[in-house]
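Sorry, explain these tokens?

___
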Amino acid sequence: MIQNFSTLHAGGVDFGNIGLEGTPVNDRSFSDEYLAGAIEKTQRLAILCDGWGYNTLWLAEHHFQTEGYECIPNLLLLSVHLAQITKNLRFGCGFNIAPMWHPLRLAEDYAMADILTGGRVIFGVGRGYHTREVDTFGVPSTQTDNAANQDMFEEQVEIIFKAFNNRSFSHHSKRYDLPPRIPYRGYELEELTLVPRPRTLPVECWQPVVTASQRQMDFMVKHGIKGVMGGGAAPSGASHEVVQRWQETLAKAGRETQLGGDLQVAYHTFIADTEEKAIAEARPYFEEHQKFFGALGFLGLTQEQIDAMADPSRARAEAALPTLEAAMERGWWICGPPEKVTEVLMSHQESYPGLETVHVGPPAGVVPERVVLEQLERFAKEVMPAFKSQVKDTASPISSAP
């Protein structure tokens, strides 16, 4: 049963001239001051989400994006600040890109954030697909060398959970010698202790389900990591085949769940008084989302489509890109009046009774602040109550007449 609503914010700045005929992604560039304004935008979004009863604001880690789509390099640092200006909202790391960190520094920083916010930061890890970001930090991205990236990521996560779950630990491999065998204050160093360790144990951790390989699922279940489907670069919505395999993988590890258990699913939603108006208003944001993420190798586009999409004079006529209507048919987008959005989400709830949390709202990074705030407020007012009431009904004792 869907009980919690969250949203994803990648930290994009506001910009105009969007859509297929708009400014090409690689031609966008903003001043340092304007790019830094993404932080204030995130603050206003956090305050609105907190006031309207959203469960979690998920943030995305990215670097060096002078184009302005994703401008938050440190999720934990920002989350600690946001927790001071809100009351109940949680902050999800969606996701800390482990290959760009030393695993023990990431573990320490999360522990600090967990303590300073009273447990309001949710840990999350990802592998990293932006070559400009990950490779710049000296590690291959999933695009450059997927196998090497996956091997490093898995070892780093193993180290992080050793540090979280053990009073003292060690780890020795070709990559990491933790601790190095050296003398320290009169004794031979053999183990380390994370100081501080998180206040909230075991640590709740989430990872994006993108490739949905069995190796990925087995690794996640082994470490108690839960999955986020859709949002950001990944197509939104839930793949029924993947949800079923996830449930089977959990069961093999001894964890019986209903379909959708230990998952969160992201849907791009856009509300207007009619479906036609919602589609018309959402289309430019859908197209800008295609321009940004499609060129990174996602959304199933061919190189010919990507090349045509990069030229505003060719994009609409030559690229033959998937339409918003097609995305709605596949369940990636939900556009329409509040009743339609409610109905579609209720149908997903029936299909996946173990699903408790969904991410909603326009796509991260491409929608102006005014529109994001309007959409999230309207969703809270006109869609959320139907789901909140069913939770109350379930929790209320059934009284019988005397």
In short: Residues 1-62+227-371+380-393 form a domain with the TIM Barrel fold (CATH 3.20.20).
